[in-house]
Amino acid sequence: MKTIQNYAPPDAQSMQRLQDRLGYSDAKMAELAGLDAATPWSSYVGGSEPRSLGRQRLFYMMARLTLDEHEWQRVLAAMREVGAHFDCKDPQAGGAPAPPEPMADEERKFGMLLVSRNGSFHEMEQLREFAHFAHEADVSRFVHSAFYDSDIDLCRFSFADHDGLDDASRDRIFDAAHKTITRFEFDGRIYHGGIPPESDG
């Protein structure tokens, strides 16, 4: 069975962006995360030392947001089948408004404009990692923008008009993308990169 390894939790700003995108109150986010009254949601998104979400809690939250109602009920039924007893209050029910349409997220890093069409947390994390490696390779000045088109799961780059953009620099940009971006276009071809999947061993 595959396990999640080398987990790094999302930071407070990322969790705040998720909350803003969902349009949830602190109380509704606490329900979504399964927090008790002693641990308010605000402690994860604010303060001088925000709490970090453990991988199990984040997995629970994302599963609740990703699975449809039928799949979610199957999970709950399986839990009860092995002997668990619980009540389950759905933070998305009770006449709550539907989440708003996804909105683009963008930021500048090392002079590059990083954009995710639908404001995807994972896409923005990949873009930030790309920016880091491009900067380390001293080629960030050649990249004007990196745009992750969430609708087709593809990242495209636009290059700055710079006389120093030679083949060696393009190779270093490609290497930075291949290390960090799951699916990207480069010189008219589609490539798959990013962290390799875990083996079954």
Name the helix and strand elements from N-terminus to C-terminus, one letter apiece. Answer: HHHHHEEHEEHEE
- The total beta strand count reads 6
Q: How widely separated are the two ends?
A: 9 Å
List unreliable stretches of 5+ residues: 196-201
- Helical coverage, percent range: 25-40%
Largest sheet entry = 4 strands, mixed
Task: Note the beta-strand portion.
Answer: 15-25%
Organism: Achromobacter arsenitoxydans SY8
Protein name: XRE family transcriptional regulator
Description:
This is XRE family transcriptional regulator. By secondary structure, this protein is of the alpha+beta class. The chain folds into 2 domains: 12-81; 105-192. Helix content is 39%, strand content 15%. The protein has helices at residues 12-22, 26-33, 42-45, 55-66, 69-81, 121-136, 167-180; strands at residues 105-109, 112-116, 143-149, 154-159, 183-186, 189-192. It has a 4-stranded mixed β-sheet, with helices on one face. Strands 5-6 form a two-stranded antiparallel ribbon. Helix 6 (121-136) runs antiparallel to helix 7 (167-180). The longest helix is centred in the middle third of the chain and has 16 residues, at 121-136.
Keywords:
disordered C terminus; XRE family transcriptional regulator; single chain; four-stranded mixed sheet; 6 strands; two-stranded antiparallel ribbon; 201 residues; 2 domains; elongated; 15% strand; alpha+beta
Task: Record the SSE blueprint.
Elements: H1 12-22, H2 26-33, H3 42-45, H4 55-66, H5 69-81, E1 105-109, E2 112-116, H6 121-136, E3 143-149, E4 154-159, H7 167-180, E5 183-186, E6 189-192
Parallel strand pairs: 2-3
Antiparallel strand pairs: 1-2, 3-4, 5-6
Helix pairs in contact: 6-7
Protein name: XRE family transcriptional regulator
